[in-house]
Design brief:
The complex is a heterodimer. Chain A is an alpha+beta fold. Chain A is built from 15 helices and 23 strands. In chain A, helix 1 runs parallel beside helix 5 and helix 12 runs antiparallel to helix 13. By secondary structure, chain B is mainly alpha-helical. In chain B, the strands form two sheets. In chain B, strands 2-1-3-4 form a four-stranded parallel β-sheet. In chain B, helix 14 crosses helix 16. Classes of the chains: A alpha+beta, B mainly alpha.
Chain lengths: 548, 429
Amino acid sequence: MGAQATRGGKVYETEVLIVGGGATGTGVMRDLALRGIHCLLIDRRDLNAGASGGNHGLLHSGGRYVLGDADTAAECRREGGILKALAPECIDACGGLFVAVEGDDPEIAARFPERCRAAGIECSPVTPAEARELEPCLSEKVYAAYAVPDATVDPFRITLENVNHARQLTQSLFLAHTELERFVIEGAAIRSALCRDTRSGEAITIHARQVVNAAGAWAMQVARMAGCSSVRLLYSKGTLIISNARIGRRVLNRLRAPGDGDILVPGGTVSLLGTTSATVQSLEDIHPSVAEVDRLVAEGLAMVPEIAHTRFIRAFSGVRPLLMASGAEADGRKASRGFSLFDHESEGLANFATVAGGKLTTFRLMAEKTGDLVARRLGNSAPCKTGTTPLPSGDAIRWTEPGFAPRYWAARREPGDLILCECEMVPTSAIDSIVENAPGAQSQMSLNAIAVRSRVGKGSCQGAFCSLRVTSHLYDRQVYDSPEGLRNTRDFVAQRFKGVAPVAWGEHLPQLELAEALHCALLGLDQLADDRVVDDGAQQARDGTQDR
Amino acid sequence: MNTASTTATRTIDFKAAARALLPAGASYDACLSCGLCSAGCPASGLEGMDPRRFVRMAMLGMNEELSTTPWVWTCTQCQRCKYVCPMSIDVAVLVGLARGAWPNEKKPSGIVRSCEAQLRFPGTSAMGLQKEDFVETVEETVASVRGQGDRFARLEAPIDKQGAHFFVNQNSREPATEPEEMGPLWKIFDYVGADWTYSSTGWAAENFCMFTGDDAAWRKMVEQRVAAVNRLGCKVWLNTECGHSFYTVWKGVERFGLKADFEAGSLVSYYAQWIREGRLPVNAAWNTQGIKFTVQDPCQLVRKSLGDTMADDIRYVARTLVGEENFIDMAPSRSANYCCGGGGGFLQAGMKERRWAYGKRKFDQIAATRADYVLTPCHNCHSQIEDLGHHFKGGYRVVHFWTLICLSLGILGANERKYLGPELARLGL
């Protein structure tokens, strides 16, 4: 099942090849591993590189969909309950409020509790005064409020746990920066996938009995590579901004027809204000714009006035892969948030499946349905176990939760364990465990890859200092032994800058000046010679989508 | 002796408190994580903390850890962090708040006891000196100074003289343990013909209540002292060679919105003024041996209150007294000076090892000047720097300005040379 070197590069054998390292792909990986099946998961970039990293981390109570999509609402409720029970370490069961402010349609507010009841979602009315007592940041103009069991989920940790568990169960493997170039199809089956390591340029051939397309926004492209045109997606770009510190205790939802700036989601130590929605035609060059950020702030402050003075440290965009349904072409907000499983059998393939659409909250269910199909095809009769088996944690995969590292460090009182990232208080031991043992750990591991597995670069300095300190540490440890390490640093700070630029005002502006002085004036990273054939960082910059 | 206290430390919401207490644009939100604060903080590393970490932990919501870390007693609230911060973030304000939230029996008892002593008697002495003791000691010492010769036969140290121009306060250390050290100061007043008085109430020049973090106690202390000055109708409240006692009143009047019918002045500024006016004709002619001096800028007097104007005065007086070529400044200095570690109640907190670790930076700075003497117009600086010299085996001595002024004027008595070395023990006698 492992790799063997041939003239044409590396060759891998596996039972199931999964394309796409997001919540769904990793969920499928774990689902199948729990049935005893070996998988190979590949991603062109890294874990959570698409929508699974570019979201607000809301674990929906379902309340957000009761007005337009009762089925999705009920699905969210069920799946949210399962995740809360099986992966509590990834969840902040903070609760949520739906609030209507003066000017919002009273009809919608009036209908809300009844719709929640219909979807089976707990919903209790609170008076505006109580709401403001629960969440003092709320506007005095709130006239109706309901409490729902919203929660938040750490989308990075959950994918890491998925991959880690699959690795423990069946030695399933994840390969980062492995791009699918084409399928070799014989008769009714994909025989192999021809891929390339985008860092080394090396060719990789993967032989698999079954292939699962969980490529998220890229699922339509992957399906087409297999000659399948049934997968039709609508690309809906969403932009969010992250505050320097947590604003509300709970998830705060605006009780109105979905619009920009109507949800403020806590992310541990920060808050995320979202979300814009704009249909885009291409997946290239997706990045947050100043206009989107302005809209978020302008809309958000109606619900939470202090947003007008809040320091935001970063903007990011993701692309929602929405299933195309009739009438949905014009408006991503009205498209179904449900998912579909394509077996592609009517298109002449018996070992290919695509799972598309859906939401972070429902990834487990998507993986279950996909796992059922793939296991049946493999003649494996083991039932799905993801609904009852807790997700195991581990040393190398617990560093993505905002606020974990500081608590760990404070409780441990180990003065020798130097803090490398001061903003998020990430200690040396965290970096060491990630480099050694995190899913997707690799030689010369890039700062971007470390950041996906930790809070490095996520704090107020946005990598200005930690990039240099972590790089120095990795050179000290001889993880880096060439100018490649410095280029990693450059790519990392360039990547962070793209997210910082749209929120560059007020208190955050001096931060950028300081970063520029450090990175360009002092270190000359902008002058760094770049003699790489394949440039992972530049690739990411072209791809545009960004995680948080 | 409180070994089984059940009183819990109140947990503060530091992020919210910072927003409430600090100006917009200079609150913890504005932190750039640049670490200038930590790099220049002698308390960095103690208890695993530093100022940047304090700010970040506040922003990360680690209120319990911050509410209980003993680091707040090793931070002297010297505000160097604020001074170098590009966003002017004041960490010390919340350190004070955190101190105040500790239950009294868990606070360093030396600080608490000093504050309690101050509150006990109207003299406000942290050493518990009562009115009668103070008056008696002053009278006895006056008699002793007059006995030094005709030059001082009419010297006076008035107490409660209504309408005197200067209300002079007095650190308790001299009347309590070394009354002869008051003599040089009185001689200077006598020399320039100053119209001054002590007071039998609110006379003490120390305020540990501020260091307990108990704002109410700080306020009470300042109120008593302000009332004492107002009562005597003095124009100038003249603070002796002491840092924090100046700051507590200067800042307290503003902070608590008190009505003060006087202006606050520091003794060193008046030394400088009197020298410039020719009323205090000091010079360095006595320093024929080329003895080297450096000065310690008291944080409370320079960075935290009067700024570099005060630092200029300190240097003007020092250079005049010891000779330009014999004065060596520390680096950094003036408003960027490092705290010595004697402030903030650290000397009274009983945390010797940490106080020495804190003071190592100051010791190294002094050692780098190779000065024989450190001049400092602050009692806490004086004690700490002297202690650092003993602990780290520095060869220097620490001396008050009044000693050198009187030495230069040829009026320093034989018993007023406690802080001078043997080379100066007989000079001018």
